[in-house]
Amino acid sequence: MDTPETFTDFIRQQSGKLLEQTLTHTGLTFISVLIAVCIGVPLGILIIRRKRLSGLVLGIAGVLQTIPSIALLGFMIPLLGIGPKPAIVALFLYALLPIIRNTYTGISGVDNSVTEAARGMGMSPRQLLFKVQLPLAMPVILAGIRTATVINVGVATLAAYIAAGGLGEFIFGGIALNNTSMMLAGAIPAALLAILFDWLLSLLQHLNIRRFRRLLYILPLLFLALSSIYLLPDTSSGKIKAGFTPEFMGRKDGDIGLRTVYGLHLPTLVISDMIMYKAAAEKKLDVISGSSTDGRVRAYDLVVLEDDKHIFPPYYAAPIVRMSTLEKYPELEPVLNKLSGTINDSIMTELNYRVDYLKQTPEKVAKDYLTAIGLWKPATGGNKGNIRIGSKIFGDGYVLANMYKILIEGYTDLSVTTKTGLGGTKIVFDALINDQIDMYPEYTGTGLLVILQAPQQVTDSIMSDSKKVYDYVQTGFEKQYRVKWLLPIGFNNTYALMMRREQASSLGIHTISALKQYTDHK
Amino acid sequence: MITLSHISKSFSPDKQAVSDVSFEVQRGEIMVLLGTSGCGKTTTLRMINRLITPDSGQIHINGKDIAAEPAETLRRGIGYVLQNHGLFPHYTVLENISIVPQLLQWDKARMKERALSLMEKLGLPPRDYANAYPQQLSGGQQQRVGLARALAADPPVLLMDEPFGALDPLTRISVRREFKALDELNSKTVILVTHDVEEAFDLGSRICIMDKGRIQQLGTAVELLFRPANDFVRSFLENQRLELELASLQLTDIWRFIPQQAAHNTEKPLPCNATCREALEALLDGPATVSCHGEHRQLDGTLLFNAIAAYKKQ
Fold first, then answer.
1. CA distance, residue A45 to nearest chain B CA (Å)
2. ipTM of this predicted complex?
């Protein structure tokens, strides 16, 4: 139950999961490349014969290539939902360009006098293609397949965001949990896979053209075998389907706690929190690991299940600031504390709802709220110094960072730069320690479990008391990092299991224990 | 036999690549299409195996309209030799030679036997070269393989597009000599494209000089040299005229201008189908005896040149 100490410990403990993720990763990579070959090579041949189409086809494939991978995965969700299907389609689209282009250049590159001779000998277009053009273009086509495979090993890490599994689960879990071992357990195998596949395919590419012929028949079978994980029927379809973030999966106050304290074992998909709520609303998932103040809880009409055995510690938000900054600008602390106690859970949910669902900008939401409670003041335009405010990549952070910006610029002569969307805890906290930002809003629970990584007996003894947790992290941060916790803002953004309201009430599930009982009877 | 009647082709509206070309080539004959690059000779050749479709006119091979059968079938019956050999780099020499027989679905043993015998004839010992790849061969050897490939299925028609053009002068002459000596050619109709005047006169039974897509003159070497149809033909041959004349005229052509002088039996004999060039070479060592129509006459350098001069004046 303890967080693994070293990388090798982690690998040893998680070897089963690591193997599964590696297989999934390999499967995602190869099935998408295989489909891309099946479609890309014929397309390449088509545009050789109809040159007028070549610009169009290569253009479209090129545009697909430039779409950021995470966005492409996002586009797939409304069309194909979550899970391997959209991931495979997105990876397939990425693999398409190198394969089409190399087929096209490979065949165009065949010596003109050779094709001329082949036609003059009386070969039909089909014979010309299979006996001359394809064999001679094969090294170039294989180079394209090689590029596509290596690209896909990389992009497939992002598949974890849409519940398709793969090594991304460890990578994103590790980033979110400030767990370097976990991150490396995903990143190193992913890099090794890329190197391995690149090397194997380069061997193929440089083999004697003659021996090729037989190998060419083996290659698709090999690809098929490697992607077989997706061709087998899904055996784990239970009644209640859960989707948890990579971060939640690895936390003591997350999936591990659910298993050990509640004994709750759900068939679980790992998924990015960006799409998790929507997937729940669209009935692709039934139980998700949300955060209680997220605006989407309201937007999608979800209900939070009561944590009747108290595994989720309090997550009170408070600004944390570098001590050196506070010493340099003593006027900062009282200004930041102005916000303390003004925002409770439902207000925060409402603010997040405006950002996430009503699509208002965080700047506008922050300004409107401060105006409403009478704290808003126009910026003084002073240039005494610059404060860099960071935030994590979700709702609370954006809104709070903007509120602090308005307050600091309104009440002091300091100017503010915001660096919002700094990934997970690890990224934003490292930025703070390395003096790349001066402050960001953090949660007491995260400070306790993720950053300080307090020993088990300590967390057990203070977990249920939010004041004790606050005191513990305040002391710990000052001593270890020279970072100060200012006064809590008021809301408690704790982890929570949530379900669709209509499903929860029809099944009569209102607590996590009730959910456990329900799944046991099924 | 190949017959072209009124063949025209243009690739752009303002320029005719080939206009109104007609000729006939008999079995056993080598017809040379001669001209500068862009004169339409290669286009004419490629219309015969339908790599290019003529805009108008008909082509018949042995009386059959070539447009009447599928292009692939037609081409399998026509040997085709390209300037840059066009050998398949991923096929061995043996496989390269067997391409057309394979397309025609010959049985394996027959295919191999045929390929090996062609290799022998063309000076490519199968033991050394049968399993070699084209890139392991010299330029001359590659061209020989290209020739063997064209001959493999024993096609009645052979089309050659500057077959020796990419070779260095020494190799070119030796490959050409082997080509001339091939007994296979006797039963074939051959059309050869070249821009090399000397090669045209060396190989052609008849020569067709083309310019700007039109035939300027079609005839034997002697006809082109001594009865040029127009100024283009005359000036086209001007540079190598003496050499060509010596190589084309046979002693029998100038026989009537050699004085009837009794021959000494000690002098070396010259056959009457020897060319003037061969005669001149022989005469460098002293007078010789020419035997023609059962008659013997003495010949030396002065007599030879007088005879040639008289022939040209007539």
1. 20
2. 0.86
